[in-house]
Amino acid sequence: MNTTAPKQLILSQAQATQLRAAAAAAYPAECCGLLAGKGDDIVEVTEVVAVPNVAADRQRRFDIDPQAQFDLLHRLRGSGQRMVGHYHSHPNGRGELSSHDRAMANDPDAIWVVIAMDAQGCALPPTAFMCPQDGPPVRIEMVIRG
User: Fold this and answer.
1) CA 10/CA 42 separation, integer angstroms
2) Rounded distance between C-alpha atoms, residue 122 and residue 130, angstroms
3) d(C-alpha 43, C-alpha 10), whole Å
4) What confidence category does residue 2 fall into, taking pLDDT thresholds of 50, 70 and 90?
5) Could you tell me if residue 40 is inside a domain?
6) Which of 124, 102, 106 lies closest to 115, judged by CA?
7) Is residue 2 in some structural domain?
8) What is the pTM of this model?
């Protein structure tokens, strides 16, 4: 278990575009998905896995199907990669974790990526956080590589 936040989260330009497209397609509901990757101090996302938002109120919440999470963990076993976190969109335009997000954060090693939407339904650049058990969310520098 890693007890400190990584210094950076690295996404490819294609992955960042995929996150923003998923958020725009789901608007005004929230999209969500899982992130596979590798690394500790610098975490590189190797795969973005879109999953259906199974929350009862998808315009205000997200909920990832536990089966999708299990399937990804099973597929990554022995690959040198791991599930590093998840992403979801905020149709309200806020690129930060909501109080509900913070209350749901039960894994201090999971990276939370948020894609905020502007008032016209356009996705803004993603932001990344970790939620330590003791203290406020920690923002992680996001690097998008061409």
Assistant:
1) 7
2) 25
3) 6
4) low
5) yes
6) 124
7) no
8) 0.93
Q: Which residues contact 70 (CB under 8 A, 6 or more apart)?
A: none
- Asked if residue 136 is part of any domain, the answer here is yes
Domain containing 64: what range? 8-145
What would the pLDDT profile of 37-54 be if each residue is shown by its tens digit? 999 999 999 999 999 999
Kindly state whether residue 1 falls inside one of the protein's structural domains. Answer: no
pLDDT digits (tens, 9 = 90+) for 92-142: 888 999 988 998 888 989 999 999 999 888 999 999 999 988 888 999 999
Domain of residue 91, CATH code: 3.40.140.10
- Tell me the CA distances in angstroms from 79 to 37, 66, 102, 103, one per residue in order: 10, 21, 30, 31
CA distance 101 to 93: 15
Domain count across the chain: 1
Other CB atoms within 10 Å distance of the CB of residue 40? 11
Element (DSSP H or E) covering residue 43? strand 42-51
Q: Residue 108 is encoded by which pair of tokens? A: 């201090």
Which residue type sits at 86? H
